[in-house]
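Subject: design request, 134 residues
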């Protein structure tokens, strides 16, 4: 006669310790991944919504070898003080002038022509950016 086993072989049926650990790791990884994506989203929103001063370079005109005029449109909070940085470039791409222009007027839109001094003839002017504060 053949011997009949009454107990099931150990570890053959049901969840093993490794499967439980894998499930816990997947859950932990999912939670951390969602938290990371939420953090990246918050940083992106704060960066976009947190800019109190923005500007647009409407046009620029090279007046002479030592000066360029730039027409700027600045949008900001009424109570915010800010400054914008402009940079003049020569034909070969070298920087020939840089200046910060302060905007402290108590309006939310400023349309102004500013003058940028250069060390040699500029061929282009670019707006580097605007920030709040002094």
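Subject: RE: design request

Done. Sequence follows.
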């Amino acid at each position: 006669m053949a011997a009949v086993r009454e107990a099931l072989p150990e570890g053959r049926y049901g969840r093993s310790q490794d499967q439980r650990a894998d499930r816990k790791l997947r859950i932990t990884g999912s939670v951390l991944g969602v938290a990371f994506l939420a953090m990246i989203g918050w940083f992106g929103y704060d960066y976009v919504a947190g800019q109190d001063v923005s500007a647009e370079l409407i046009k620029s005109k090279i007046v002479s070898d030592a000066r360029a005029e730039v027409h700027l449109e600045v949008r900001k909070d009424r109570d915010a003080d800010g400054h914008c940085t402009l940079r003049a470039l020569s034909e070969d791409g070298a920087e020939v002038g840089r200046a910060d222009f302060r905007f402290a007027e108590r309006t939310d839109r400023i349309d102004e022509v500013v003058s940028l001094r250069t060390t040699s003839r500029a061929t282009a002017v670019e707006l580097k950016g605007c920030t709040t504060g002094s």
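The longest helix spans residues 17-49.
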